[in-house]
Amino acid sequence: MNLAEILPQLLAGFMAFGWGNAFMLLVGGVLIYLAVAKEYEPVLLLPIGFGCILANLGMSVYEEHSFLKVIYDAGIKSELFPLLIFIGVGAMIDFRPLLAQPRMVLLGAAGQFGIFGTLILATWLGFPLNEAASIGTIGAIDGPTAIFVTSKLAPELLGPIAVAAYSYMSLIPIIQPPIMRLMTTRKERLIRMEYAPRPVSQTTVVAFPVVVTVIVSLIAPGAAPLMATLMLGNLLKESGVVERLNKAAQNEIINIATLFLGLAIGATMTADKFIFDPVTGEWQFRTLLVLGLGLLAFIMDTVAGLLFGKLMSFLSGGKINPLIGACGISAFPMAGRLSAKMAQEEDFDNFILMHAMGANTAGQLGSVIAGGVLLAIVSTMI
Amino acid sequence: MNLAEILPQLLAGFMAFGWGNAFMLLVGGVLIYLAVAKEYEPVLLLPIGFGCILANLGMSVYEEHSFLKVIYDAGIKSELFPLLIFIGVGAMIDFRPLLAQPRMVLLGAAGQFGIFGTLILATWLGFPLNEAASIGTIGAIDGPTAIFVTSKLAPELLGPIAVAAYSYMSLIPIIQPPIMRLMTTRKERLIRMEYAPRPVSQTTVVAFPVVVTVIVSLIAPGAAPLMATLMLGNLLKESGVVERLNKAAQNEIINIATLFLGLAIGATMTADKFIFDPVTGEWQFRTLLVLGLGLLAFIMDTVAGLLFGKLMSFLSGGKINPLIGACGISAFPMAGRLSAKMAQEEDFDNFILMHAMGANTAGQLGSVIAGGVLLAIVSTMI
Amino acid sequence: MNLAEILPQLLAGFMAFGWGNAFMLLVGGVLIYLAVAKEYEPVLLLPIGFGCILANLGMSVYEEHSFLKVIYDAGIKSELFPLLIFIGVGAMIDFRPLLAQPRMVLLGAAGQFGIFGTLILATWLGFPLNEAASIGTIGAIDGPTAIFVTSKLAPELLGPIAVAAYSYMSLIPIIQPPIMRLMTTRKERLIRMEYAPRPVSQTTVVAFPVVVTVIVSLIAPGAAPLMATLMLGNLLKESGVVERLNKAAQNEIINIATLFLGLAIGATMTADKFIFDPVTGEWQFRTLLVLGLGLLAFIMDTVAGLLFGKLMSFLSGGKINPLIGACGISAFPMAGRLSAKMAQEEDFDNFILMHAMGANTAGQLGSVIAGGVLLAIVSTMI
Amino acid sequence: MSELFSQALWITLLGMGLTFAAIVLFWGMMALITAIPVGAEKEAAETAPRDSIPTQAAAQKAKAAALAVALALAEQEQQQVAYFPMPETAFVSAWQLGMRTRQMYQKGSGR
Amino acid sequence: MSELFSQALWITLLGMGLTFAAIVLFWGMMALITAIPVGAEKEAAETAPRDSIPTQAAAQKAKAAALAVALALAEQEQQQVAYFPMPETAFVSAWQLGMRTRQMYQKGSGR
Amino acid sequence: MSELFSQALWITLLGMGLTFAAIVLFWGMMALITAIPVGAEKEAAETAPRDSIPTQAAAQKAKAAALAVALALAEQEQQQVAYFPMPETAFVSAWQLGMRTRQMYQKGSGR
Ligand code: NA
Ligand code: NA
Ligand code: NA
Predict the structure, then answer these.
(1) Which residue of D has its CA nearest to C7?
(2) pTM to 2 decimals?
(3) Which long-range contacts (CB under 8 A, 24 or more apart) does B26-35 make?
């Protein structure tokens, strides 16, 4: 027995631990703090933060025998986790407000400009196309879409992109209101909207997810898996005949996938990818840039959505409150509620929640489509 | 940037979509319609129908990077899904009615004739032995058994066989009654059966699944995994000491496995396998043949079961109502209830439900054994 | 068609079945009996017993196409199952009694001596180092730790080690009391302990699992995955903001992992590994030795824990009841309750439950650390 | 007769034969397994009386069960004025059956 | 202007164009899909009236819903004396929204 | 003494040493971690008072808990006339303990 042989092994934990790792432990701690004390998207930030801590203690997804690598390979590399989460999200979405007012769907397209605006900025800053596009997906303002596209185009950026997407999403009530006040007049915010929806039959509600799946798979095959799973979840709920499966989607499947998705993404956040790579001797400023660009993506989305809302308001002869343009960014259902609240702050009797929720679900659809289109275009160019 | 390069990629969805795919979308839509509007086995036909639609939109199990291929490989190729479902099914079955009247078990053997009768017909129609045997398993009238055997012998037929098995099973109340009326006299249907069961002790109920597993594994090793998982589920329930695991079997495990089994099987139903293969230039009439043979399998099972019921009625000196012969086909628990209902239609005071449920659970056992025997014999010959 | 070809296949079940297998069926039956009739750790002994039966009927983890091999590879070889179970266990543990009396943590170290004492005995009996260390882990008196370490060092011993660990753990109320009576005087057992705990803030309770993860990962990297998952589960519960994930950890995740862990471990218990290997012609006396050494491990743990308890009692001037030393062995929460009960048997008004539970959770921590340290040291030497 | 066809016939003969053989074996085993525990019943009754059907009450329970089924069927009949015999699904129905069976026993023992 | 940057502009043009095209297609499809079932409504009403919003009651329900929201928002307002607009989480909130929506309808139909 | 045996002794020495070292480190850390939040307590009390044990009520709760345990143990004692100390399972018992602990606190604070 030779202590000289055993000691390095016993001290392996300390030997591999650098100041960069210590800093990343702090980052993980901050994420957990935000999740627990501030309740910012805790179901994701808590696992991501804990995964980040583990990644810098020798359990990253880059270690050959790490259990987090097993989970990463099984769920992120295979693209299963975002899709499983979408089955659950689909089972929680109600498309009736949108189906009752079909033209609201247009608002779901404008709110995707942030994706492409950010892509332009990122290429201008020198990011290669695959990374720039991945950063752009933060502008989808929809976690699973951003993770699905990024895991195909630039998996090395999964950590910062997921963190940016989910953190800013939880900050929607802070990010959007100033922009909304700046870009709309009080008169516009006071516009009341009539709620006289068409009746929506059960047949329509069941047919909708199937038809959407077919259309999107044909015109944007890149988005097909995302849209298919989202719509599968919705079909499970709306069909009303498979309550067992509906419950499994909304509980077991989404909870397990969410926990392990968060852990695995956090476990990509090693110090050498985020701070300083001792092998190449390079500082990783990209992480900060990603976080900054992500904030811009949210802002551009909101601005584009509001501009389109103003256009629709003008075209409709002032019958549409432009505030609901801000719901087209996705961020379901926070953005929808926020718009309704802004309108009500100006006039206590002004209720636009149903219109806002319609635009918000349209934004969810638009986000997935834009993400798929982006994936398809960029895939051919790299 | 060259549009000529990108365009084909953007139109990839349309380019790969032929009239055959359009037809299969219709088929998927019909399956979903049957599931939702008619409630024909919705927990399976809904996922199968949706999977069929996805398969013809570029997400089949034959695509290299399809998420449904990942699920197919993990659950069907590995044979796990049918076995996981059987754990849950076993936890839902009550063998007490059968244990209280052991001779009822004989009815579980005769009702398997359809398996072999269909095999004969299929070979006569020119199917190779492995495919003929797989088609025969529709006569097991038990989804997981049919899928387990088929995935080993002829995985290319999984789609039509699963669809046939589950659709006809949901049509039991339409298929069986005419045959039952035709083959039994009113006098026979009026036979009342005494219900004086032996007491069944807790020890017996716990020992039963273990002993069955041992016997079947020795004499029909092909059926061992199916019988073992079915009996494991039953043991979890009957032991009464592992309520957590029992609930997991009856909920999480069976629900998740059922959803993904259905999706993955539906995702095998591509147009080139079902309608017309553009590569070989051949029409796939086999699918229609499978559906037709499957119906015959159900009919032959019922006829054989009733004939054996009449034989037992004769041997017992008219103490057994031959209607319960029709429960030996499996199709648990529909067939059991149907027989009881038929007897009661003739005579409102005639209750044979407990006898019928005994024969029905015997049919479940017989189906698994016959499936295993078939698998063992055919495996040596191909 | 040649019967001579088919017959061997049909009789394959009987041909492969030897007297050793018959004996192992009995062993499996006894385990199921203990689980059902005696309720000895049924959630694990029932699946292990059933898995043992399957292993000797041609479905062991050593068979190429066995579904239990699929489960074994996915959950044991990958080390996922013990870790998933620990997420659930962590979500069930309350560290408040320990945090309120920090010095109790010392008792968690002494109770690990059985691990190393057993290791010494096992090497003395001729076991190679990797197997001796694995046998020692029975002394961790914590199933997932023993399984995690053994699956890395000596997977061939998984079956007997898991069976020993769980069986003796359920026998704690029989094993410990005589030793406790023998090693303590009545006067010592009568010592009352003041319960004036420090207040434990919510911040402390949330920070604790994170800090423990960091410390253990640095000083005992071998234990890092175990401690990290245990603490993740605890964080999910204590954070209070991710109730969905907490419930998933305590239900779906732990139940499914437990069921399949038990089955897969049972399925390693084939006759040729446990009784007699017909290839080498050797009797496998090792199994009996493992079971015997395992019992000694429990005894040595208890003795060391009590001795340390007496030391602390002496050092504290008789303010500490040495009985709580017996809780440091882990076996959470049985050992904790047992000590409280022993103290109360002497004096009906003596309540040391909170102190006992503190020492008991300390034992849980100590077990994981000792297991990790053992793994790290032995890994460098083989 | 083609060779394949003759093979199919052989498989049928062998397959049905083995299935019947296995089922007959089951019969014997069940006769045995339900006979043995009469001695062990005492112990079983002490530790786990919850699920076993007591002999004396069985006939009464059967009647109660039959009545419950009759009511259920009558009810179903009425619904079918507008609608054919509800083709329920295997899983959901198995589930329902379990629940219903439990209810039957509850009614029986409640008397 | 670098080639990469020009590529990015092209992607933006193409991407936003396709996204709008898809969404416009959705609009048409939704107009169609919500128009057709008026004929099929009768059948649907027979088999599954549970989830569809009846025309006659819709306006009333909308009012009820609006009122409920108003109350909820007013309530939220009060809480915010001490605390800024609760940044809720996506999943939990989606969940809550579903529950709340159901409650709204329950209140509406309960009147 | 064989080399293997001497290795085992070394492992024991090193292993127990490291385990004790880690546990002592834990002790220090816990002393620290439970000391710090006294300053942070105010904030914690505002946002999350639900789970922390208030100092003033602790002694009272301990009594209540002790009483509950006494009753539970007494009850268990009686059952054991016919039956030895129920060897419960780890998971189920951990679960039960959690429930029981919660109940204890509920009883305590309900007074
Ligand atoms: Na968006
Ligand atoms: Na059958
Ligand atoms: Na221990």
Answers:
(1) D14
(2) 0.85
(3) B27/B52, B27/B269, B27/B274, B28/B52, B28/B53, B28/B56, B28/B266, B28/B269, B29/A210, B29/B53, B31/B163, B31/B266, B32/A206, B32/A210, B32/A235, B32/A239, B34/B167, B34/B170, B35/A239, B35/A241, B35/A242
